[in-house]
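> forwarded from #structure-qc
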């Protein structure tokens, strides 16, 4: 099981680097809880507390547990529900989004 320690002071750059180190994939982070049409990507220096639509979602430091069998879709949904920030998982070069049914533990071997 992987774990990412997250608090509101963490920058987008740090979150993305940690995710890439753990899973070998790129994490797209959005402003607010919408990753759909018209969504705006967060800036590298943005703090996570500035991105959440519900600011209270990042008031405490917490460890976000990521089980080995969690799929891309499950991760994206759990992250959004927990922190009120939309994310999407892409290949390490950030060229295309990964299959939602792919397990995060299999991402490094899938490319």
């Amino acid at each position: 099981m992987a774990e990412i320690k997250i608090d509101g002071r963490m920058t987008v750059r740090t979150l993305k680097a940690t995710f890439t180190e753990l899973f070998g994939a790129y994490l797209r982070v959005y402003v607010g809880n919408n990753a759909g049409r018209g969504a705006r990507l967060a800036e590298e220096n943005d703090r996570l507390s500035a991105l959440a639509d519900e600011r209270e979602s990042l008031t405490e430091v917490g460890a976000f547990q990521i089980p080995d069998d969690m799929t891309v879709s499950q991760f994206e949904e759990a992250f959004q529900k927990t922190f009120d920030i939309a994310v999407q998982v892409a290949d390490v070069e950030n060229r295309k989004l990964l299959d939602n049914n792919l397990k995060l533990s299999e991402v490094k071997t899938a490319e």
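QC bot note: Residues 2-110 form one domain. The chain has one domain: 2-110.
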